[in-house]
Every structure is written in structure tokens, then in C-alpha cells.
Amino acid sequence: MTEVGRPADMARTFAQKALASAGGEAAVAVGQIVDARPDIALSHDNTAPIAEIWRQFGQERVSIPERMAVTLDHAVPAPTIRHARNHAEVRAFVAEQGVGHFFEVGRGICHQVLSEEAVVLPGDLILGSDSHTPHFGWLGAFGAGVGRSEMAVIWATGELWLRVPESIQIRLEGKLGDWATTKDVALTLIGKLGAAGALYRSVEFDGPAITGLSLDSRAALVNMMAEMGAKNAYMPPDQAVFGYLAERLVARPGRRPGRGAGHGETAEEAAGRLGERALYPDPGATYAAKHVLDLSAVEPRVARPHQVDDTVGVGELESVRVDQAFIGTCTNGRLEDLGAVHRVMVGRRTAPGTRMVIVPSSSEVWSEALSRGWVADLAAAGAVFGTPGCGPCMGNHLGVLAPGEVCISSANRNFQGRMGDRGSEIYLASPAVVAASAVAGRIVHPREVMG
Fold first, then answer.
1. Residue 93 CB contacts under 8 Å (≥ 6 apart), including other chains
2. Which residues are bridge partners to 205 per DSSP?
3. Rg (CA), the chain
């Protein structure tokens, strides 16, 4: 393990490089405290209570309005008067302070939307008042969650001190088999290493298998590392990532002066610039631990209530009935996820006594699923759809659970009471397993439904 004071010219991890860049340092050591300036400061429905803390500093204007991003996504449309009042306060604050990036009700979940809008770029530091901010590691960015008071400090000063974390390297080899997904990879890792297995550490993925993973599936894996306690998670960005972002930057020229695409710049030119700013760990960098996972050995897994690291193969749970199946969240509400659900459910129906709730992660995902005919097919199969956003993930609305009910969910957390009554139970699984379970009325492997 790297110690504080180790020579700065030694091989460095991604975390060391990212925080050195954000702190204006040539190099930093593990354990060093860095005054970091985030490229993006993210908040969502919790913006109003953060503003109350910030106003106690006596400032009239936030210091970094152009670097702030606010998304209304956790309880949308407003399910209660209290939520409606909160949304109104957020809108007023955004207008008053001239916040640079604001996304209204229905645009979708903050992590998905900021990715789609190319607000976060490779090499960026994004700090968010949401625990799943490590999500942005799929873009090659350093994303970390912070508390409300810490976000208020960022608004006031434009910076926040961070300790440079130790890093864990996870090397991915092989190729996923049929029905195995990166959600299963995440549950396999968390089951092996534990819910605190990466506490305040940088999880840095490596290996030849990464280039074979779709962008949607990369995001799902990195997102779930928050459930292992990671401070941040990272995948080395490649041409697929640069191309994804470049196309979106070129479609919005001049929106991010000095960082986005300029007027007249081609997607190829923008992708080239993104590649130049990307950060990669050095060969020989020191890691607190190294792990290797052969993806071909991964099978569909399920996390049992009420711990995300209590994971078993789906075949061990086939007697568990299901009252509700839920597809969505920042982990598994993307187009690829809806495609997996469609593959399983098209031409079939949800089982009697079982309901299927689907909440797309963004309006872009929702629109594309509509255009492909998936929404009509899934509605015919018995699914109901909610407004793009977080939905019932944290028990706000659009599918909360009654006492004694069992839900199988594509979300990221299954804490007791997370999605409703404390007497309910939540099982976590991939979208395909969730869909198959909705059809069978009990937890099953997709093979049982598909034949």
C-alpha cells in the first residue's frame, strides 16, 4: 500500500492522477489531502435543503454557477404537496443563481442525463450529493458522492478537500455468457468482497474484457461499486466512449466553452480531443489489492434481503414468490436493460398476482423504446410505465411496497424499508431475471421462461 510521502515520480493510479489534476498538483500521494476543484457539482431534489445550508454562509451568489448541475429526478412528478413545494424552491434557486445545467421533471435520473448531455468528460472530477456519483467512472471521470453540507461548501468556495484514496484493481477477462450481465458481475464481486470491500477506495477496472462490453453495461457495473463502499470507480475510456461523447458535444456546439466541441468541429476532432484529456493509471502503479474475474464463469445472481452482499445463484431461489417486479434506476434503467426485458416478455404476460413496473432512466431512453415498439409490447404483456426518474427505488412513489410484499428489482439497494414498508422484502437481480420472474410469478432463471 502506498504511504503518504512516497516519491511523487512513482507510477500512479487513476485516482492519484485525477485528484492531482483537480488540485492543480503535479502529483499526489495516497493519503494526501487535496484541495480539489470539481469540474461539476451535482445535486438533485435535495438542492433546496443544500441551499438552506449554503445561505448560512451569508453569500448572495454561489461561486461556481457555471459548474453546477441540478436535476429533478427523485420524486417526479411531485407525488405530494411537500415534494411540489421542494421542486418550486429548486426552480427558484436555479433561476436566481443562474445554474449552468438544469434538467426538469421528466428528463431523467441525474447520472444518466449528465452522461447523455456530455456534461461530464473523461478526466473530470464530479462531486455529487448522491451516493451513486461513482457512476461517471464509465466515462473515465472521477465521480464521488458527498454530503449536503459538503456540497454547500463547494457552492461557496468552488472547492473541497479530499483524501487521495487507496486503489483496488479488478481485472476483467473472458466474455459473458448468455443471460449473464454486468449486474451479475457486480453482484458476484460484492458477494465476494463484501458491502464494505472497497470502503473509501478507488475501484479501477482493467483488462481485455472491457472493450467487449457495451456502454450501457459498463455504466451498470461501475454504478454498483457504490454498493461496495467505493469512493469512486473507473473504467479506462476507449474510442467507443470518446465517440459517444463527441457526437453529443458536436450536436450542442459552444455549450461548454473550452471543454465541449466548438462550432464547426467534427465528431472525429472532438473525439480526438477527448482522448487527449483522458487519464489512465500507470503500469506498475501500487494497489491495495488486485483481483481477477473471468466473465465466462459469471452466472445470473440475486441479492437476498436485506443485504446487497448476500448473493446466491438464481437457481437457489426458485420457490420465492414475487408480488412486484421493478425495472429502472441509475443502475439498470437504460435502453439495453429495456431490451433485455422485451426479449423475455414479448408475447408473454405477467403472472396473475404479479405486477411489473418499468421506469426508464431518461426521456431519451423512453423515446427510443417507444420508437422501437417495445413500450407497446411490454404494455400488452402487463407492464406499467412511470415518468423517467428514480421511481420507487427509494420508496417515494410509483410502486412502493405494502407489508409482506416481495419485490424483485433491477435497482442497486435492498435495505429494509428501502422501497416501502419495512415488512416488505427486496431481491436484486439483472433486468432479464426480473422480467422472467414477472412472467413466472416467482424468482426464476430466464431460461425457464424462454425454453
1. 47, 48, 51, 99
2. 170
3. 21
CA-nearest of 257, 9, 25, 229 to 125 is 25
HSE value, Cβ hemisphere, 13 Å, CA-based, for 257: 2
Query: Which residues is 292 bridged to in the sheet?
Result: 171
pTM: 0.93
Cell of 54: 449554503
Residue whose C-alpha cell is 489489492? 289
**Where exactly are the structural domains of the chain?**
30-164, 301-450
**The C-alpha cell of 216 is what?**
450501457
Contacts of 396 (CB under 8 A, 6+ apart): 74, 75, 79, 83, 390
Dist CA 198 CA 176 (whole Å): 24
Reported as a single tens digit per residue, the pLDDT across 25-55 is 999 999 999 999 999 999 999 999 999 999 9
DSSP 3-state assignment of 362?
strand
- Look up residue 142 and give its three cell numbers: 472521477
Tens-digit pLDDT profile for residues 355-398: 999 999 999 999 999 999 999 999 999 999 999 999 998 888 99
C-alpha cell at 415: 435495505
Task: Name residues whose C-beta falls within 8 Å of residue 371's C-beta, 6 or more positions apart in sequence.
Answer: none
The class of domain 30-164 in CATH terms is alpha beta
Task: Return d(Cα 443, Cα 39) in angstroms, integer.
Answer: 43
For β-strands 406-409 and 311-313, DSSP reports them as unpaired
57 phi and psi, to 5 degrees?
Answer: -80, -10
Which superfamily does 301-450 belong to? Aconitase, domain 3 (3.30.499.10)
Dihedrals phi, psi of 77, to nearest 5 degrees: -60, 160
Q: pLDDT tier at 241 (50, 70, 90 boundaries)?
A: very high
Q: What is the pLDDT of residue 318?
A: 77
